[in-house]
Amino acid sequence: MKTYDFIAIGGGSAGFNAARVAAGLGLRTAVIDGARELGGLCILRGCMPSKALLYMAEVLHLAQKGKTFGLKIPSARADMKAIHARKRKIIGEFASFRLEALTNGKFDLIRSQARFIDAHTLELADGRKLRGKFFLIGTGSKVSTPPVPGLREAQCWTSDDVLDLDFIPKSVIVLGGGIVACELAQFLHRIGARVTLVQRSPNILRDHSEDASTVVQQAFRDEGIELFTATKLQSVTQGRTGFTVTFLNEGKKIVRRAAHLFNALGRHPNTAGLGLETAGVKARPDGQIIVNRWQQTSAPHIYAAGDCAGPAEIVHIAIQQGELAARHAAGVRGLKAVDYSLLLNVVFTDPPLATIGRLERELTEAGAPFLVASYPFNDHGKSILMDANYGYVKVIAAPKTGRILGAEIVGPDAGELIHAFSGPLVLRATVFDLLRAPWYHPTLAEIITYPLEEIAEKIGVK
Question: How far apart are CA 5 and CA 9, in angstroms?
Fold first, then answer.
């Protein structure tokens, strides 16, 4: 029976980076991954393929708006076979790079499923057993299927299917209003599908502020996406020609039919079948593994990171958590836990939505005082000439010192602009510090100075 100092279960962002760090610290390390393709959710079925498709749809959308900019573009339409081929080529290159990193000999790669049979022993699918001193669980998440009558039986699409399309669907009903649902619903609409989005909560993107989600909702409706919020799903049926979804909205029974149905009602931790109880690892009812600030589970020698541990399904968080776990297992001194007050989030809709740090809802619930100011893109020179008028920049700061606490941006290039706050948050900078920095005109970035100035005026000149 082989014995290792550190075993990562799952070769995605959390497991791979944990193994890389552990091996670099001199631990005898192995990665166990039984997936058909190696690379993890982000590379194969998440971040990279979705953003490749979203960017191509954005280029198409701009071409179709040529008249707005005084351009004569007779026609622009999606060639899905070419789009699909380009995406496969790009993702293939990313996956090859990850596969090379997994097989470069710095740690052992074992292609198998695994489960705990005791706190220090794993059994592989072929019956082999491995012992480990420390473990990192990084098994990610998988699509959820809520108890909606007929949904489990229906042959509906998941995000995997949408990301692998090589044709333009005639019509699609999208169930859900989270990040995946919204990003891919807009993609489907822009390539030429008739899209209906059905969200159970009062607003799409419910984990974000009502202000932000309202902007994206309006943009969706203006673009031609049929959007229902505050619904109660009643049933899903599949017939010879497509799907029928029945739901309640504003007290009325609504029926919608489409050729395809996309289940985007969320994901849950992929932890079933790992033998967590046998190893003494506690999890919440949905399967999410409970961890402390060092990513240790209830069995201290077993760590968990990434989507299966939370609190956010974000790649850079999974990497931070995995690396922290490996260093903690190796006994590295002076470690700092992941600072979730710096949490950075981006939604790649159009307009995109991005947030960082502590936001209004969190501060209000905590009873913490703050100042807030915002400025709209429809009154900003660069965004107006771009015909990108949806949204705003919002800054949240401490009321006495002006220290930046967080920011929210909905509008053009929000995912890029939000990084203007990353360094200042880490350095505990104030609105006055940021106003001393140069901001070039005319740029999108200079819009950030307007809410900064408003907060500075409220506090007084420093």
Answer: 13
Tokens 């202000």 belong to: 211
The ranges of the chain with pLDDT < 70 are 461-462
pLDDT, residue 216, reads: 98
pLDDT score at 99? 82
Whether 68 and 123 map to the same domain: the answer is yes
Are 136 and 12 in the same domain?
A: yes
Do 233 and 187 have their domain in common?
yes
Tokens of 240: 């010879």
Element (H, E) at 168: none
Tell me the angle at which helices 13-24 and 80-102 cross, rounded to the nearest 10 degrees: 30
Q: Answer yes or no: do 325 and 350 share one domain.
A: no
Decide: pTM greater than 0.85.
yes
Q: Residue 17 burial by CB count (10 A; 0-12/13-18/19+): exposed, middle or buried?
A: buried
Host domain of residue 187: 159-265
DSSP code string of 69-116: GT---------HHHHHHHHHHHHHHHHHHHHHHHTSSSSEEE-S-EEE
Q: Are residues 401 and 276 in the same domain?
A: no
Based on the fold, state whether residues 222 and 357 are members of the same structural domain: no
Same domain, 11 and 129: yes
Q: Are residues 305 and 319 in the same domain?
A: yes
Reported as type and span, the H/E element at residue 358 is: none
Catalytic-labelled residue, pool 260, 316, 380, 441: 441
Confirm whether 441 is a catalytic residue: yes
